[in-house]
Amino acid sequence: MKFLIVRFSSIGDIVLTTPVVRCLKKQAVTAEVHYLTKKTFLPVLAANPYIDKIHTLENDLDAVINKLQDEDFDYVIDLHHNLRTLRVKRGLDKQSFSFDKLNIKKWLLTSFKINRMPDVHIVDRYLDTLKSFNIKNDGQGLDYFIPEKDQVKEEDIPASHHAGYIGVVIGAALNTKKYPLHKLKELCSIIDHPIMLLGGKEDREEGDAIAAPDPVKIYNACGKFNINESADLVRRAKLIISNDTGLMHIASAFRKPVISIWGNTVPEFGMYPYYPKAAPGAPSMFDIMEVKGLGCRPCSKIGYDKCPKKHFKCMELTSPESVYEKVKERLGRK
């Protein structure tokens, strides 16, 4: 059986599809698993041993569809479910199974604060697309594979951080998912442990501002490493503090404890940190830091450049001291 799994973006969403890839490859003995994504995100999947072939989209979707037709797939597993994936499915004309995005339920929650979302993680909703093949969740969590060439060398990490550090993810796709700069400055100033700031090139300037008061304790890695190298820095960390963003899910893939800070989005959307199935009574691997009871939250399933209400209470009311208390608990200092 030849399968095409489709998920175009983004980093976190793609990482959340990895249980589908693994379970399909390991449980369907004859499965040949292909994956279609944007070329930008190829590094996230390139080293995944459960994928037989990766196809990428850059600009011309019709050209990609023409090439995919030559593969003669048996089934298409659509984990993105948008207009472009509809074109792919129509172009291939094969039996397909699509992920339910629950858009009406999300609209009710964001527009009227009526919560009809199922208490089911998005990973399990992705896996529902494989029910017809008797594929089950193996309980092993997420995967992330780092090529040897992208493993960070010891000399590229400051000596002050060799004995361990806390990773603080300062970036996010949209500003209403980001813990504010002044809050990050205060948080990093009160944490008495080496800190590694993680993010992209677009986060470099804010990272410099956070690290400026104590550049020995706080190392700004934003923009200095590619996505796989950043993932390796997450893998090496003792603990990750993160916004609702891709590196949070990569941290879960490496079984790292996560303190997640939530702004305009909410865990009820089903995209909170996801770990291997734990024994009954085992402590949680993650903490949720969020401001409950705000009449305006969630305001969007994705986010905005600015708070629509202009007060940004969903982030401003999460104090650095409360985050630091969770840090101390995770490090066994309380």
From TrEMBL:
<keyword id="KW-0328">Glycosyltransferase</keyword>
<dbReference type="GO" id="GO:0008713">
    <property type="term" value="F:ADP-heptose-lipopolysaccharide heptosyltransferase activity"/>
</dbReference>
<dbReference type="GO" id="GO:0005829">
    <property type="term" value="C:cytosol"/>
</dbReference>
<protein>
    <submittedName>
        <fullName>ADP-heptose:LPS heptosyltransferase</fullName>
    </submittedName>
</protein>
<keyword id="KW-0808">Transferase</keyword>
<dbReference type="Pfam" id="PF01075">
    <property type="entry name" value="Glyco_transf_9"/>
</dbReference>
<dbReference type="InterPro" id="IPR051199">
    <property type="entry name" value="LPS_LOS_Heptosyltrfase"/>
</dbReference>
<dbReference type="InterPro" id="IPR002201">
    <property type="entry name" value="Glyco_trans_9"/>
</dbReference>
<dbReference type="GO" id="GO:0009244">
    <property type="term" value="P:lipopolysaccharide core region biosynthetic process"/>
</dbReference>
